[in-house]
């Protein structure tokens, strides 16, 4: 036994002091009442009787004293909050994993699966045995213990109120690993998973999860599976015609019956398209909206059942996407005159082009901050603090060393992974005369002649700014006559300004997002879809955030404001049919138990000895009161 | 008041009090819920077990007992005692109802989260223990310290609340230190903070994570009110050599020499031995080196070459290092995908002359297969990038082979060149064949002269043995011949038994009705005499002016041979060709074969008379409609084509002949034409591929001068390269990255067409093979996630090099109304995960530790005092008030005892009565 309340020494002191007082009070004789009686011989007999019973009287007084001391002992003991030492090491140690993934927002049970799961855990808390201890953890994309391992029902109940639903999938292996970490070295550990069973496999990149000897229990929540969800939603601008974009939408009826669905597509809050479709169960239906234009930023898809009823999971009935922002790039072209270059730059309406002669370049450079500078046949002594495209660079100012002249070089090797040349047909470009470029460490050779031995096109970074160098004058080749030429120029500018087709229209909830932010910023704030504002660290130029809510986010970094969207888009979460068994763990199949009527353990006052002591005090005081006043004790 | 009334009223009052109390209890407590909460002066109060208030319902019992008390106490003292006892019970009840309130505190619980992974030197663990010890020393009285150690997984280390001595920091054991997951350790730490304590966590680590993401977890820690501090380990990295990366080019062409780069880290300058293995052998060009490494990263480059194969695994091992802590990181692997040379299947009718084109293509970096037959299945055909069929008669190519070629071109995007020659096009009987259908030219060239092109003599046996079906079919064959011939062509039909009879005299074929009625009159006769009949045909043909003169001799029996050879030789001398058809088993094959050979024609042995019309028709077509134009000419470029870049057709020598064909309508494209404006080279798209028609030949007959042309090889090389199965065009870019936080590989494939169009609705499958060599293959679907984008995500639970492959399938109509799935594009990639990142010998990541601490308001290298400094923070916690009630109960208990044991009232009265002489007695 140990004392969780006052330490034993203090208890002894209290008992000693109060007990001494009790003893003193019992040593003191109660002053008798003086009663005048008319006839003394009558009382002589009484006095005689008294003398005969004085021993019995003494015994009654002793009994009374003992009763009072016992009462005092119980009270003092209660102050110590005594507990059995075994409760520290024996009894059940239960880790409850409460599934808070998106599918737990399903409303097939009232008011929701998560609420039912919480009720089930409350029931578990009530049924905790005297030496049982419990830890409650929320299981979503991460696992979060809501408090320490405790036997205090009120504390556990309070923790349960902090479980909140997320728009992410549950990371079951991670949660199981956490539970087994907590239960390491515990003899009678138990893991209770309260979930609808949509948990994937109990295995991840580290291999299958082992929970050792811990008992695994699955409390199954949920009943129905009627749901239609948006399982993909994204938007992309076309690589070349960036004024237009294409939207992809995928719907899945994860229920058992066909459903008629109305899809609404909204652009910047305005209705763009309404379609009614019939979905067959289990068959994803992809729908593309090509060649769209009009919306500037926000796209949203909403679905509703045509019959006016609602499906069981509203969380996947909306999806969000953001169009990549079009930035009007300021381009400075330093050229003695090149019609081909001017024509290529005319193709992109989002370019703000300024042409200057090489002599006027130093002045022009100062007039504005340029997103890109193009040097056509002119090479400045040093690279400006801007992203630069060098066409036929020469001299010491070139970012790469320009060496041997190449007669009739061609693009024998092309680095098709690089965004500048990814979609360009350069293989058969004819060049009359070029120069071999010598890249520095870290530079990328985008195109090379002579079987790869003579780099012709090199990209890299100097002083934090990007450059592309092309080792020939375009007028000495048939490149300007090809569609690849304007695309090359625009791809270079897009690469400089990070505007390419790889833009992500929305993040997925439940993943760690890394959102690019401007250089030099170390911390940003992010406004979540629910309106809360969170401070987020920046690492290597990217804000790092684990997102668990679907919707539009707003990132603020100094004066820079960026929007981004996040979606659930997870067919396994949209499939809300509750599973009868957990994923196989350690070769064990764990069947689900209904959340009600689970484990009818005796309801008592577990591990609350002080309560029992106080109840005993109440009982003893009632007894002592009666015996005293009936003169059974004095 | 009478005692009975008084007692009754007393009892009624007690019962009333009890019932009222019960009603109030049920109304406001029992049915009020599990707990009762209220707020007073900004403080939250709560009864956690309000139902225990029921104990107070026993108050009337105490009053009832005192009503019947025999104790000798004055009334006032009795009332006081009863009041005290009732108060005692009520206080007990309140204690049992567990009254609690929300209070604030500044007590701090600090969890030390200590990295014990393999990358941490032992000395750093001692430092960690000292840090914990100084925390224990500096810990204020009510504050707590908890301890978690972690590597791959975290462990809570038991530490008593009043512990004064820091425990030894121990590693987790063999095999458990090869990873670092700080995020999981923090998650375990969350569960160690008791209620009512400000939460601090101190991470002692080098910040190098292999799993999880500390920064993302720091966000969450902040939202759970956990303040993080970081203490980076400062011990220098022990002597270490690690192969950080082994890099090979993404694409390597067969036979080409390339560089293999190794990035080798060494913490100190030292000499090591480096061995590069190619597969299971030491790299041939440059395999073993002794390298002097500088401190830091060193780039070591090897030359290598792959002669054959589709992939090769390189592994680089560093050994003989003087200072090296981990052996696990001394080897790295990489897989190189080898781009094999394109394979051309070249089937030549005259194999002895196949070397000219074969050598030219081989010199242009093609693998040329001249020995294999034409494929009969698509799978066989897919081995080739281009198929050349040259100068081969139609009869040597089965229908299945022709259809396979069609499928190969149409569905798999293969390239097919049909080259002419003496057996090419119509000359080889290719009219109306499957091959003609897929070629951009027709084989029924128009006549260019007014004079008859062909004079044909049919010499048909009508001996007795031909009676019945054979003769009828022979008549049908003759009629079909008349139908097949062009209007100006001439036809003579001679039947013979013992003597020849001219049924049709050399008549233009345009008089078909008359010819056919004449033929219909043929009847069976007697014996078989070939010579006179053949002679009659010779006589008739000699007299005509046709360009081509041909005899078809049909017989089913034996005949004397006398003079026939001379006759046929004479005919051949006058360019009269003779083909022979032997029907049935009774023929003199030697004779007929001799006639056809000497006569420059063909011999057909026919068992079934039904096939006679087909043979006659084909013979006629071969003779009449596919005329070889054997003239010297220089082809002219009609329309420019990319593959002619750098090839000056104007400087090309003369060709000596070609087979006359006619262009099909657009989109068939004529590239080169003859002086007679007939196609020499034409092409068009068939399905996904190209077919090309080259009407001259590709050997030392018509193209004999071209063989000496310097651009002969370049011409064919560029032609084949442009039109071969364009794997490159269909290979989409795939990017694959290993996310160290999750251990998952995320592969993204962008399918964007050249026309700025996203390729949607493709069925994509993603295959991971490895670790190489010989690792298992795992295939999973690669769902489309955006217009033109397909993504796959899979856990990489092994170490080594992995080959990635994605195939994109599309439903294709096979032209017969059936839809089947064909692979239209594919992607390749590879990813390397040589050994656990723990052994990557990365420098401590102080930046991440700093940012994680900053994100929660904590800091780097905190002093022990700072660790326990609440910094003005207060935390609300649940304070149980029941012990206070127990204390009050003890006080009440003592007070009650005093009231009962000491006479407090009517003392005065007692003193007065004492003055009188009375007897003392006690009641």
Descriptive overview:
The complex is a heterodimer of chains A (634) and B (923). By secondary structure, chain A is an alpha/beta fold. Helices cover 24% and strands 31% of the residues of chain A. Chain A has 11 helices and 34 strands. In chain A, the strands form 8 sheets. In chain A, strands 18-17-19-20-26-25-24-22 form an 8-stranded mixed beta sheet, with helices on both faces. In chain A, strands 27-33-32-29-30-31-28 form a 7-stranded mixed beta sheet, with no helix packed on it. In chain A, strand 7 and strand 8 form a beta hairpin. Helices cover 28% and strands 31% of the residues of chain B. In chain B, helix 6 runs parallel beside helix 19 (846-855). The longest helix of chain B is centred in the first third of the chain and has 26 residues, at 3-28. Residues 911-923 of chain B have low confidence and may be disordered. Chains A and B meet through helix 1, helix 2, strand 5, helix 5 and helix 6 of A and helix 2, helix 3, strand 6, helix 5 and helix 6 of B.
Determine the most extensive contact between two protein chains.
Answer: A-B, 110 and 114 residues
- Give the oligomeric state of the chains in this entry, treating copies of one chain as homo and distinct chains as hetero: heterodimer
How would a textbook summarize the main sheet of chain A? 8 strands, mixed
Secondary-structure-derived class of chain B: alpha/beta
Largest sheet of chain B: 8 strands, mixed
- Helical run tally of chain B: 22
Q: What coarse outline of chain B follows from CA principal-axis ratios? A: elongated
The total count of helices of chain A amounts to: 11
**What is the number of strand segments of chain A?**
34
Global Rg of chain B: 53 Å
Q: What distance separates the N and C termini of chain A? A: 35 Å
Q: Uncertain runs of chain A with pLDDT below 50, 5 residues or more?
A: 597-605
In total, the number of strands of chain B is: 44
What is the rounded distance between the termini of chain B?
Answer: 24 Å
Percent in strands of chain A: 25-35%
Share of helical residues of chain B: 25-40%
Strand arrangement, major sheet of chain A: 18-17-19-20-26-25-24-22
């Amino acid at each position: 036994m140990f004392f969780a309340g006052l330490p034993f020494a203090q208890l002894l002191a209290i008992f000693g002091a109060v007990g001494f007082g009790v003893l003193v009070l019992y040593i003191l004789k109660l002053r008798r009442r003086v009663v005048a009686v008319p006839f003394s011989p009558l009382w002589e007999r009484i006095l005689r009787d008294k003398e005969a019973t004085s021993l019995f009287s003494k015994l009654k007084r002793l009994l009374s004293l003992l009763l009072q001391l016992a009462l005092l002992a119980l009270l003092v003991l209660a102050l110590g909050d005594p507990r059995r030492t075994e409760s520290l090491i024996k009894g059940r140690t239960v880790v409850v994993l409460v599934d808070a993934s998106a599918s737990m927002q399903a409303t097939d049970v009232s008011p929701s699966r998560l609420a039912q799961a919480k009720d089930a855990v409350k029931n578990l808390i009530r049924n905790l045995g005297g030496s049982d201890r419990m830890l409650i953890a929320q299981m979503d994309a991460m696992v979060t213990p809501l408090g320490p391992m405790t036997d205090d029902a009120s504390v556990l109940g309070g923790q349960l109120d902090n479980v909140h639903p997320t728009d992410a999938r549950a990371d079951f292996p991670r949660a199981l690993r956490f539970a087994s970490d907590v239960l390491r070295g515990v003899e009678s550990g138990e893991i209770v998973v309260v979930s609808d069973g949509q948990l994937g496999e109990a295995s991840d990149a580290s291999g299958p999860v082992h929970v050792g000897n811990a008992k695994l229990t699955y409390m199954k929540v949920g009943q129905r599976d009627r749901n239609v969800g948006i399982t993909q939603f994204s938007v992309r601008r076309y690589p070349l015609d960036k004024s237009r974009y294409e939207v992809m939408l995928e719907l899945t009826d994860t229920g058992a019956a066909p459903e008629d669905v109305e899809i609404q597509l909204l652009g910047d809050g305005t209705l763009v398209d309404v379609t009614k479709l019939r979905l067959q169960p289990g068959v994803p239906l992809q729908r593309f909206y090509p060649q769209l234009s009009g919306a500037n930023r926000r796209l949203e898809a909403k679905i509703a059942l045509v019959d006016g009823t609602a499906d069981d999971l509203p969380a996947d009935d909306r999806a969000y996407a953001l169009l990549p922002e079009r930035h009007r790039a300021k381009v400075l072209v330093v050229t003695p005159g090149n019609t081909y270059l001017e024509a290529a730059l005319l193709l992109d309406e989002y370019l703000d082009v300024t042409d200057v002669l090489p002599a006027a370049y130093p002045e022009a450079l100062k007039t504005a901050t340029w997103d890109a500078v193009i040097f056509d046949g002119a090479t400045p002594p040093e690279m400006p603090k801007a992203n630069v495209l060098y066409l036929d660079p020469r001299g010491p100012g070139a970012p790469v060393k320009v060496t041997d002249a190449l007669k009739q070089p061609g693009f024998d090797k092309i680095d098709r992974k690089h965004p500048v040349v990814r979609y360009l047909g350069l293989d058969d470009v004819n060049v009359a005369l070029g120069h071999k470029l010598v890249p520095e460490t870290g530079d990328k050779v985008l195109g090379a002649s002579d079987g790869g031995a003579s780099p012709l096109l090199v990209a890299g970074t100097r002083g934090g700014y990007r450059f592309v160098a092309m080792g020939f004058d375009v007028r000495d080749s048939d490149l300007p006559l090809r569609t690849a030429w304007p695309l090359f120029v625009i791809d270079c500018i897009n690469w400089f300004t990070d505007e390419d087709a790889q833009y992500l229209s929305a993040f997925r909830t439940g993943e760690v997002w890394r959102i690019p932010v401007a250089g030099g910023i170390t911390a940003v704030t992010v406004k979540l879809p629910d309106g809360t504002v969170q401070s987020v660290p920046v690492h290597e130029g990217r804000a790092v955030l684990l997102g668990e809510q679907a919707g539009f986010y707003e990132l603020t970094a100094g004066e820079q404001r960026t929007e981004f969207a996040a979606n659930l888009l997870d067919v396994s979460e949209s499939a809300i049919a509750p599973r009868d068994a957990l994923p196989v763990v350690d070769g064990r199949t764990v069947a689900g138990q209904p959340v009600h009527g689970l484990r009818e353990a005796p309801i008592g006052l577990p591990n609350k000895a002080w309560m029992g002591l106080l109840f005993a005090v109440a009982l003893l005081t009632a007894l002592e009161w009666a015996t005293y006043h009936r003169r059974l004790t004095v | 008041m009478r005692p009975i009334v008084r007692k009754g009223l007393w009892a009624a009052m007690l019962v009333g009090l009890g019932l009222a109390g019960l009603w109030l209890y049920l109304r406001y407590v029992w049915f009020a819920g599990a707990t009762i909460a209220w707020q007073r002066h900004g403080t939250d109060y709560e009864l956690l077990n309000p139902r225990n208030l029921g104990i107070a319902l026993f108050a009337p019992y105490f009053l009832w007992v005192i009503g019947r008390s025999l104790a000798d106490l004055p009334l006032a003292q009795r009332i006081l005692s009863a009041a005290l006892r009732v108060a005692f019970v009520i206080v007990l009840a309140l204690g049992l109802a567990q009254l609690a309130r929300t209070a604030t505190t500044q007590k701090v619980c600090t969890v030390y989260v200590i990295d014990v992974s393999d990358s941490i030197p032992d000395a750093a663990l001692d430092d960690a223990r000292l840090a914990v010890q100084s925390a224990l020393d500096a810990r204020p009285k009510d504050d707590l310290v908890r301890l978690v150690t972690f590597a791959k997984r975290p462990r809570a280390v038991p530490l008593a609340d009043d512990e004064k001595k820091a425990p030894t920091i121990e590693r987790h054991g063999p095999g458990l230190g090869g990873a670092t997951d700080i995020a999981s350790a923090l998650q375990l730490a969350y569960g160690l903070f008791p209620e009512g304590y400000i939460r601090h966590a101190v991470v002692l680590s080098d910040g190098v994570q292999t799993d999880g993401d500390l920064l993302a977890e720091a966000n969450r820690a902040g939202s759970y009110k956990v303040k993080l501090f970081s203490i980076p380990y400062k011990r220098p990295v022990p002597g270490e050599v690690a192969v950080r990366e082994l890099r090979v080019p993404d694409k390597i062409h067969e036979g080409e020499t390339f560089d293999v780069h190794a990035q080798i880290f060494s913490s100190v300058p030292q000499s090591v031995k480096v061995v590069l293995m190619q597969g299971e052998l030491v790299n041939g060009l440059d395999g073993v080196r002794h390298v002097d490494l500088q401190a830091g990263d060193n780039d070591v480059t090897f030359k290598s070459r792959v002669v054959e194969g589709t992939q090769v695994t390189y592994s680089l091992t560093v050994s003989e290092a003087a200072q090296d802590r981990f052996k696990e990181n001394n080897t790295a692997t990489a897989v190189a995908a080898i781009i094999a040379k394109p394979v051309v299947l070249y089937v030549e009718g005259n194999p002895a002359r196949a070397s000219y084109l074969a050598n030219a293509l081989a010199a242009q970096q093609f693998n040329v297969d001249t020995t294999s037959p034409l494929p009969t299945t698509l799978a066989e055909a897919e081995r080739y990038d281009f198929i050349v069929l040259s100068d081969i008669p139609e009869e040597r190519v089965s229908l299945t082979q022709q259809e396979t070629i069609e499928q190969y071109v149409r569905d798999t995007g293969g390239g097919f060149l049909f080259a002419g020659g003496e057996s090419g096009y119509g000359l080889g009987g290719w009219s109306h064949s499957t091959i003609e259908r897929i070629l951009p030219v027709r084989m029924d060239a128009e006549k260019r002269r007014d004079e008859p092109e062909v004079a044909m003599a049919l010499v048909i046996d009508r001996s007795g043995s031909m009676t019945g079906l054979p003769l009828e079919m022979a008549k049908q064959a003759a009629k079909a011949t008349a139908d097949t011939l062009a209007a100006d062509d001439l036809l003579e039909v001679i039947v013979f038994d013992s003597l020849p009879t001219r049924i049709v005299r050399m008549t233009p074929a345009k008089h078909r009705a008359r010819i056919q009625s004449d033929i219909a009159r043929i009847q069976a006769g007697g014996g078989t005499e070939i010579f006179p009949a053949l002679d009659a045909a010779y006589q008739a043909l000699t007299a005509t002016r046709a360009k081509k003169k041909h005899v078809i001799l049909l017989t089913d029996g034996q005949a004397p041979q006398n003079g026939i050879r001379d006759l046929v030789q004479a005919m051949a001398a006058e360019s009269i060709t003779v083909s022979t058809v032997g029907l049935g088993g009774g023929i003199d094959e030697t004779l007929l074969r001799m006639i056809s050979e000497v006569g420059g024609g063909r011999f057909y042995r026919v068992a079934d008379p039904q096939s006679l019309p087909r043979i006659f028709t084909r013979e006629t077509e071969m003779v009449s409609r596919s005329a070889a134009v054997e003239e010297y000419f220089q082809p002219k470029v009609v329309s420019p084509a990319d593959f002619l870049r750098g090839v000056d057709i104007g400087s090309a020598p003369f060709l000596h002949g070609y087979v006359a064909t006619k262009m099909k309508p657009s989109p068939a494209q004529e590239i080169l034409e003859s002086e007679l404006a007939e196609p020499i080279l034409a092409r068009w798209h068939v399905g996904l591929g190209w077919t090309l028609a080259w009407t001259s030949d590709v050997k030392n007959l018509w193209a004999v001068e071209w063989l000496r042309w310097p651009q002969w090889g370049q011409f064919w090389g560029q032609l084949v390269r442009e039109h071969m199965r364009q794997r490159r065009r269909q290979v989409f870019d795939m990017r694959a990255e290993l996310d160290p936080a999750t251990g998952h590989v995320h592969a993204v494939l962008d399918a964007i067409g050249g026309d700025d169009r996203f390729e949607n609705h493709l069925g994509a499958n993603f295959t991971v093979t490895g670790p190489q060599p010989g690792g298992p293959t795992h295939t999973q679907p690669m769902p489309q996630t955006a217009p033109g984008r397909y993504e796959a995500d899979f856990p990489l639970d092994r170490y080594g090099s992995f080959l990635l492959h994605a195939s994109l399938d599309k439903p294709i109509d096979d032209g017969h109304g059936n839809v089947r799935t064909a692979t239209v594009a594919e992607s390749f990639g590879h990813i390397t995960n040589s050994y656990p990142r723990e052994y990557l010998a990365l420098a401590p990541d102080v930046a991440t530790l700093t940012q994680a601490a900053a994100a929660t308001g904590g800091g780097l290298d905190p002093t022990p005092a700072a660790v326990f400094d609440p910094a003005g923070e207060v935390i609300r916690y649940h304070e149980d008030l029941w012990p206070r009630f127990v204390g009050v109960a003890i006080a009440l208990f003592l007070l009650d005892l005093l009231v009962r044991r000491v006479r407090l009232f009517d003392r005065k009265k007692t003193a007065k009565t004492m003055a009188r002489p009375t007897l003392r007695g006690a009641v």
